[in-house]
């Protein structure tokens, strides 16, 4: 099993969570060959904490990115990630991972991901499942099995290069999985003890409010080209979790506002059509079967391309 992996972590003002995440990375049963932390203009204690950890752990490298003056999501995250990516040679690593610094990972997290990916060479991107601490317990963020989650995008290097990295726009962390699946790769996340991790921020939150984050998600779904009926069903699903009803409603408002204002969509009409076909099929037969049909259909082409 090949186990050489690099982590790239864009961050801005993560002092509240940084030590927890770095300690859980250091405690991994298989440590990363390299962790590149891109300080995207932090003005809290983040730089001092990063300097402390980098001095104590040679595999941690801190890269300072020029300050844009504000915390950015969507395309800004990809911009910061790419800034760190430009400092490494991808061919030196078997896997590459975009990771957030507001996570608490189980000790065998990366070992288990690599073990499962080694068992199936078609798995191009994978992750565990995020949980939040709430009312003294852990509550799942209810992410689908057909996507690797945006907080910890673990990629086989060959797959990452084949999809040409992340698209620098909102919904980059769903577009990448659709793009990989269209090319015959498998994108997946698993709910398992060694893979479940704690997300220290609520899903869909924003630097302004959780409602802003949900509206941004709706905008992103429009930008990605999501089918309206499918997305309406998604909004209903998300209305059953905090903030009840209003979360799903704000997602729908974000989608409609993006349509009304003519927001620019993903500049790949073939990929947008692929996404809509999958979503409409998923409404009829469920996501699991819709994904399985795509994987079966694309397997011969993938095997021919990779000589497996």
Question: Roughly what fraction of the amino acids lie in strands?
Answer: 15-25%
Report the C-alpha radius of gyration, rounded: 19 Å
> CATH topology of the largest domain, which one?
Spore Coat Polysaccharide Biosynthesis Protein SpsA, Chain A
N-C termini distance: 17 Å
Kindly report the name of the CATH homologous superfamily of the largest domain: Spore Coat Polysaccharide Biosynthesis Protein SpsA, Chain A
Number of strands: 11
Number of helices, where a helix is a run of at least 4 consecutive DSSP H or I residues: 11
CATH architecture of the largest domain: Alpha-Beta Complex
- Would you identify the regions where 5 or more consecutive residues have pLDDT less than 50? none
Helical content, roughly? 40-55%
The assigned structural class equals alpha/beta
Account of the 3D structure:
This protein has 308 residues and is α/β, with parallel strands linked by helices. It has two domains: 5-199, Alpha-Beta Complex (Spore Coat Polysaccharide Biosynthesis Protein SpsA, Chain A), CATH 3.90.550.10; 210-260. Helices cover 44% and strands 17% of the residues. It has helices at residues 18-26, 46-56, 75-85, 109-119, 157-162, 172-182, 210-224, 228-238, 246-260, 269-285, 287-306; strands spanning 5-11, 34-39, 60-64, 95-99, 103-104, 123-127, 130-134, 137-140, 152-156, 186-189, 197-199. Strands 3-2-1-4-9-6-10 form a seven-stranded mixed sheet, with helices on both faces. Helix 2 (46-56) links the parallel strand 2 and strand 3 (60-64). Helix 7 (210-224) crosses helix 9 (246-260), helix 8 packs antiparallel against helix 9 (246-260) and helix 10 (269-285) packs across helix 11 (287-306). The longest helix is centred in the last third of the chain and has 20 residues, at 287-306. The mean pLDDT is 93.
């Amino acid at each position: 099993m090949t186990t050489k992996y690099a982590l790239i972590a864009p961050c801005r003002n993560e002092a509240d969570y940084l030590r927890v995440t770095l300690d859980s990375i250091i405690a991994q049963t298989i440590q990363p060959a390299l962790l590149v932390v891109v300080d995207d203009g932090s003005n809290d204690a983040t730089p001092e904490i990063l300097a402390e950890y980098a001095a104590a752990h040679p595999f941690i490298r801190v890269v300072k990115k020029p300050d844009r003056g504000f915390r950015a999501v969507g395309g800004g995250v990809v911009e910061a990630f790419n800034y760190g990516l430009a400092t490494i040679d991808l061919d030196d690593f078997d896997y590459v991972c975009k990771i957030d610094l507001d996570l608490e990972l189980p000790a065998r997290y990366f070992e288990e991901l690599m073990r499962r990916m080694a068992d199936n060479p078609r798995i191009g991107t994978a992750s565990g499942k995020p949980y939040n601490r709430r009312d003294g317990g852990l509550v799942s963020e209810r992410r689908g099995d057909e996507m690797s989650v945006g907080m910890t995008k673990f990629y086989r290097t060959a797959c990452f290069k084949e999809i040409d990295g992340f698209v620098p726009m909102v919904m980059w962390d769903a577009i990448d999985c659709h793009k990989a699946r269209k090319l015959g790769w498998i994108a997946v996340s698993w709910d398992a003890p060694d893979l479940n991790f704690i997300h220290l921020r609520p899903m869909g939150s924003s630097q302004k409010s959780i409602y802003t984050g949900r509206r941004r998600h709706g905008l992103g779904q429009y930008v990605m080209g999501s089918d309206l009926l499918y997305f309406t069903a998604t909004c209903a699903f998300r209305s059953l979790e905090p903030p009840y009803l209003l979360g799903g409603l704000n997602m729908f408002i974000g989608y409609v506002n993006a349509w009304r204002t003519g927001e620019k969509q993903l500049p790949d009409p073939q990929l947008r059509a692929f996404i809509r076909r999958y979503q409409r099929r998923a409404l009829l037969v469920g996501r699991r079967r819709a994904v399985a049909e795509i994987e079966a259909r694309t397997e011969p082409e993938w095997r021919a391309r990779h000589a497996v």
